[in-house]
Amino acid sequence: MQKTHSLIVFLLLAGVILLSQSAFIVTQGYQAMVLQFGDPKATYTEPGLKWKTPFIQQVLIFPKMVLGVDPQPEEVILADQKRLVVDTFGRYRIKDMLAFNNKVGSTEQAELRLNNIINSMTREVLGTATLSGDNGVLSPKRADFMLKIREQSNLAVKDMGIEIVDVRIGRADLPDQTSAAIYDRMKSERQREAAQFRAEGQQISQETKSNAENQRTLLLADAEKQAQILRGEGDAEATKIYAEAYSRDPEFYAFYRSLQAYREALPGDNTTMILAPDSDFFRFFKDEQGKK
Q1: What is the pLDDT of residue 111?
Q2: What is the pLDDT, as a whole number, of residue 245?
Q3: 18 CB contacts (<8 Å, ≥6 apart)?
Q4: Is 110 a residue whose pLDDT tops 80?
Q5: How far apart (Å, rounded) are the C-alpha atoms in residues 25 and 46?
Q6: Run of H or E including 25
Q7: Which domains are delineated in the chain?
């Protein structure tokens, strides 16, 4: 009885071990490859419970999803000898599990190699570009450069079982020293332009003031001319009226003119005049007819 019990336990343990060595699970987002003495026997890209020959076959699991690589920013010399610090990132997936396992081995090693390859292709492609212009990194042609970097990177990894699905230039900055020099040059240029604009503004201001002063002088001269004309016409009209009045009543005209002279000569209480009492100036004080 005891021997029978031990045999049952042994068979159960052997069954569990056999089952664990025969079955494996492929989870969502992963793929598996079954090897037998280094040769691929089966590949599984769909999730689920899978089977293999126990103890003889080996299972390798690889990610099926798109993976990312983010190389360190790289300083690139452009065709116009300008320097740029370019920060790129890429996306790839494992296309051939056997080639990937033989040439790369792991996603960590793949990331290291892809970082170097993408940076190298970035230097090579952007080495034919300029900073600005039709063939510039800062122009709409930037998308073409990224496409070319991806194509050349794919050529470099075609035997690794990897497909690079995308390469992007995240940032393209000038080096710190270059940025400082460009900033200083731009600052000097803006200061020069500001000084030029101020000088032009001063010139325009002076011209405007001069024109305004000329207009003012012309307007005043024209106004004075018109005033002189009107004053002359008024004086002529007044002389005409005076002449008519004098011709009508010479005595009244003489009396009126004398009153005007008194008003102008004696404007206040403190006016002092030294004249002979029998002077013609006071003749209307003695006689209302003004007779001498």
Answers
A1: 93
A2: 72
A3: 54
A4: yes
A5: 10
A6: strand 23-26
A7: 17-63 (no CATH), 67-179 (3.30.479.30), 227-286 (no CATH)
